[in-house]
DNA sequence: GAGGCATACTCGTATAGACGAGTGGGCAAG
DNA sequence: CTTGCCCACTCGTCTATACGAGTATGCCTC
């Protein structure tokens, strides 16, 4: 068994006020912050840490759990514990739905990812009519049924976002919006073609820990929150024509907005 | 020892593929979701769950740890484990910095909280000159020194937000901006009085788990992420006149933005 | 050389036991 | 009645042990 690299980790004080597993977590955290353990590199194994600190394995695992829930490290069964690499971040600009970006043949996600040098994918495509939840219904002006478009976005094979668009059925039925591929410019282009000129979008941003289902769908390591974004699109007559409910891996995104000072 | 309320929790299958502690976590999660355990109410104690499921205490604690890191429950030493109440949420509208909101004598935070029926407080006031970090420096156009204004916001005694404003020293020195209380309308009003008419703000929004320091400062339960918001204020000449770096308890906020469709 | 297997190392799950420390209620002494 | 103590109950920390399961490596066989 390889020893812990000397000088990187010190000793613990069992008589200290601070719990031993917290002291170990502190030392590992500091070593990571200082770059003693680099991004993506392997930490000493549990057995090595047990040896080094002279504590039981559960104590070591406890300290590892602390850092996992902080999102600093992630354990991989059979391989080891690694410093979590910071994934490339996708920046969402506040003008991303501007009309001038809708001319292209490809969706905004694809265009943007290509430009950033990432390999984009979209899967889990499902388009179906359903009864809206109370919340969605209220946002859309209480339609009896809605068209729901579900899809998952991936970058370089990693799922980063899961989104569901809801549209009142009378706007969507019989148009390309009700088909898996809505065509160039996406559903917003189709809505405008149908005479629903878009006026503005309202976005609500929340952050929270993922449900187990969300964690699975986005393959999230523990300690990674999600950004929950609900966007409502309004046409020039003030009618809500679409609600998009999106859950994003928080470590893959930064949202950018511009606010007026007037 | 009180038994677990009958019918709420079933049994576990030790031969199942799914780990026992996950099965227990699943059952507790479902019971909470279904409202069998209400917000703020006490879950069965560890000892009771040990008895009910016929497993060891560490297994029960493990399952409790799962739900804690999901933000669903929080344990209180000596009292029990409780369903985490969802605190009242503060909504930040995208027009919150509009000029018309700066007429009042009180700060936006105070006015808003009063209107919502909460008791607002501001503490940790610190105003001092310092050398900017590389990031802040870049955003402000590389000033040698900046004025930093630190403060923490509380609602009904609960800390919800910690913010630091940075301003180039030449804009702030010798004005009320350099004093703890910048006067009615806040520092933006003072900047405009000094001839720096504000044009717009850029906001960057991220979500992540808190550092230990942040968790302490905001008294965050485990499983509560933070929203990290960096706002840059620009005057009509395009100069960055302030950067505000804010860390918010994610369970206390929802951010609202309006995006143009043009 | 290629394939497959054994093995060592990794983390995951679970048990049993012990003591510490925070909380709150009840009881006894004043 | 009030005060203060004790105790029961709660979660927190830690040890020691065992076995399971995923991964990688190297050797052995073909």
Structural account:
2 copies of one chain form a homodimer. Helices cover 26% and strands 31% of the residues of chain A. Chain A has 262 residues and is of the alpha+beta class. Chain A has 2 domains: 20-83, Arc Repressor Mutant, subunit A (Orthogonal Bundle); 90-255, Chorismate lyase-like (Chorismate lyase). The first copy, chain A, has a 6-stranded antiparallel sheet. Chain A starts with 19 loop residues before the first helix and ends with a strand. The interface between A and B is large, with 47 and 48 residues. Strand 10 (253-260) of chain A pairs antiparallel with strand 7 of chain B, so a sheet runs across the interface. Chain A binds a DNA duplex (30 and 30 nucleotides) through helix 3.
Q: Could you say how many structural domains of chain A there are in total?
A: 2
Could you say which structural class the secondary elements and strand pairing of chain A correspond to?
alpha+beta
What is the correct CATH architecture of the largest domain in chain A? 3-Layer(aba) Sandwich
Q: Mind telling me the CATH superfamily name of the largest domain in chain A?
A: Chorismate lyase-like
Report the total helices of chain A. Answer: 8
If interface size is counted as residues with C-beta under 8 Å from the partner's C-beta, which chains form the largest one? A-B, 47 and 48 residues
Mean pLDDT of chain A: 92
Percent helix range of chain A: 25-40%
Summarize the biggest pleated sheet of chain A. Answer: 6 strands, antiparallel
* N to C succession of SSEs of chain A: HHHEEEHEHEEHHEHEEE
Low-confidence stretches of chain A: none
- What is the percentage of strand-forming residues of chain A? 25-35%
CATH class of the largest domain in chain A: Alpha Beta
């Amino acid at each position: 068994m390889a020893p812990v690299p000397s000088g990187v980790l010190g000793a613990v004080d069992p008589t200290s006020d601070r719990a031993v597993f917290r002291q170990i977590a502190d030392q590992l955290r500091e070593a990571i912050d200082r770059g003693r353990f680099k991004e993506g590199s392997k930490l000493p194994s549990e057995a090595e840490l047990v040896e080094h600190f002279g504590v039981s394995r559960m104590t070591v695992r406890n300290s590892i759990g602390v850092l996992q829930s902080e999102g600093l490290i992630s354990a991989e069964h059979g391989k080891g514990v690694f410093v979590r690499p910071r994934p490339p971040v996708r920046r969402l600009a506040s003008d991303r739905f501007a009309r001038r970006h809708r001319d292209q043949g490809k969706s905004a996600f694809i265009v943007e990812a290509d430009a950033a040098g990432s390999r984009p994918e979209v899967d889990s495509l499902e388009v179906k009519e359903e009864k809206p939840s109370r919340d969605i219904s209220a946002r859309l002006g209480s339609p009896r049924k809605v068209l729901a478009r579900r899809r998952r976005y991936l970058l370089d094979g990693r799922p980063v976002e899961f989104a569901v668009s809801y549209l009142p059925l009378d706007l969507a039925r019989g148009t390309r919006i009700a088909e898996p591929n809505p065509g160039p410019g996406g559903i917003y282009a189709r809505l405008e073609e149908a005479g629903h000129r878009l006026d503005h979008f309202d976005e609500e941003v929340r952050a929270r820990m993922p449900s187990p289902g969300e964690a699975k769908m986005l393959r999230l390591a523990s300690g990674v929150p999600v950004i929950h974004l609900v966007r409502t699109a309004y046409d020039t007559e003030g009618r809500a024509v679409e609600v998009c409910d999106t859950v994003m891996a928080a470590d893959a995104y930064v949202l950018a907005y511009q606010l007026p000072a007037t």
